Amino acid sequence: MSDIDKAIVPILKRTMNNDAFRDEVITGKECQVVLMALQPGEEIGAEVHDDHDQILIIVEGNGQAVLSGQAREIGANDLVFVHAGVEHNFINTGKRTLKLYTVYAPPEHAAGTHHDTKKEADEAG
Predict the structure, then answer these.
(1) How far apart are CA 12 and CA 52, in angstroms?
(2) How far apart are CA 51 and CA 117, in angstroms?
(3) pLDDT tens, 11-58?
(4) Range 3-124 classified under CATH 3.30.70.580
(5) Where are the beta strands (DSSP E) in the chain?
(6) What is the pTM of this model?
(7) 49 close to 100: Cβ distance less than 8 angstroms
(8) DSSP 8-state assignment for residue 41
(9) What whole-number distance in Å separates Cα of residue 17 and Cα of residue 29?
(10) Domain extents in the chain
(11) Alpha helices, DSSP H only, in the chain?
(12) Are 10 and 110 in contact (CB under 8 A)?
């Protein structure tokens, strides 16, 4: 596969077809794209990235974004920008899978990271 083939990703199709809790798509020197799928009632879990900005784009489903303790409803076509140092959590409050992709800058996970479930992600640390 050529460099340009690796660099062009049908991100909406990949996101819609993803059922894994976390699946790294591409990692560069300064940023990374990761797919996520949260099952009904599932959440990412409150976390803070002290030296990372994070952008999350919701593709399907609905839920809540909790930033610095304040919750707001989110759904398809919403973008949430999480500034470095902000405590955040994302919760699937809907009846179907919440599908999204996220951009970390700089990268947060090792290239090739794949966790089918949140439990698997938690166990991996």
Answers:
(1) 24
(2) 26
(3) 999 999 999 999 999 999 999 999 999 999 999 999 999 999 999 999
(4) no
(5) 22-27, 32-38, 53-60, 62-67, 70-75, 79-82, 88-92, 98-105, 114-115
(6) 0.92
(7) no
(8) T
(9) 26
(10) 3-124
(11) 3-7, 11-17, 118-124
(12) no
